[in-house]
Amino acid sequence: MSTRYTVWATNADLEEVRNYYIGDSRDIAETLACRLFLASMFEKDFMITARKGTETEIHGTLFSDRTKRLRDECQG
């Protein structure tokens, strides 16, 4: 069973706001999420989800500084 990767525009509550990609390539999903984050000048939030069968998990997130503060998270 293959894994399906999805790139979403998201928010601080990790809601799926807008879909940008659904496919089997993790590399494409990660590259697209990074390019979208860069194109937004690091102001919009994105997440990558991975679905295998009926299980879905968050594979990665890219958060703006504002969202990091709202979520009380630090990265570094």
Helix and strand layout, with pairings?
Layout: E1 4-10, E2 18-23, H1 26-39, E3 45-52, E4 55-62, H2 65-71
Antiparallel strand pairs: 1-2, 1-3, 3-4
What does it look like?
This protein has 76 residues and is α+β, with helices and mostly antiparallel strands. It has one domain (4-71). The chain is built from two helices and four strands, in the order ββαββα. It has helices at 26-39, 65-71; strands at 4-10, 18-23, 45-52, 55-62. The chain has a four-stranded antiparallel sheet, with helices on one face. A hairpin with a 2-residue loop joins strand 3 and strand 4 (55-62). 18% of the residues are buried.
Question: How far do the termini sit from each other?
Answer: 34 Å
Based on CA inertia axes, which overall geometry fits?
globular
Count of discrete domains: 1
User: Can you write the helix and strand succession as a string?
Assistant: EEHEEH
Regions with little confidence, pLDDT below 50 for 5+ residues: none
Task: Provide mean pLDDT, rounded.
Answer: 93
Helical residues, percent: 25-40%
Largest sheet: 4 strands, antiparallel
* Strand segment count: 4
Q: Which assembly state applies to the chains in this document?
A: single chain
Largest sheet, spatial ordering of strands: 2-1-3-4
Estimated share of beta-strand residues? 35-45%
Structural class determined from secondary elements: alpha+beta
Radius of gyration: 12 Å
Individual helix count: 2
